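sry for the spam today, last one i promise. struct tokens for design, 130 residues
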């Protein structure tokens, strides 16, 4: 069983880059749905195993992977965002950034441009298991 992590900042803490409404949608609705469905699917999978319902196990495992990864990816997302601050990476990471990008500013520029170019992927829908 998995549990929702608490949001590490207020819903409006990421504005103006990420709106309060969008964060509420992703945290309260989408993330909650992934967590609930992960737990429901895990229960169904345990029951299918107890009942030797082997035909259904493949479908349930696929759904567990879908819902579980959705929950984990949302958790990573929430934990890796933070309100705007002026902190910089520690010296080890900064050295690597300079090695790979030439400078921190160049890294930031490339990161920002890459982020703007990201397209949403089309999710593979979950399956209806018996
Ligand atoms: Fe989301």
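last one done:
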């Amino acid at each position: 069983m998995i549990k929702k992590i608490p949001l590490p900042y207020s819903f409006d803490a990421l504005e103006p880059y990420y709106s309060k409404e969008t964060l509420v949608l992703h945290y309260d609705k989408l993330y909650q749905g992934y967590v609930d469905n992960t737990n429901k699917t895990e229960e169904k999978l345990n029951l299918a195993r107890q009942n030797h319902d082997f035909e259904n196990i493949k479908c349930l495992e696929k759904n567990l992977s879908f819902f579980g990864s959705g929950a984990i990816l949302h958790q990573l997302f929430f934990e890796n965002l933070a309100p705007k601050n002026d902190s910089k990476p520690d010296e080890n990471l900064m050295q690597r950034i300079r090695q790979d990008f030439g400078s921190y500013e160049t890294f930031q520029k490339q990161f920002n441009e890459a982020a703007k170019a990201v397209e949403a992927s089309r999710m593979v829908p979950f399956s209806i298991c018996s």
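Residues 26, 30, 74 surround fe (ii) ion (CB under 6 Å). ok im logging off now
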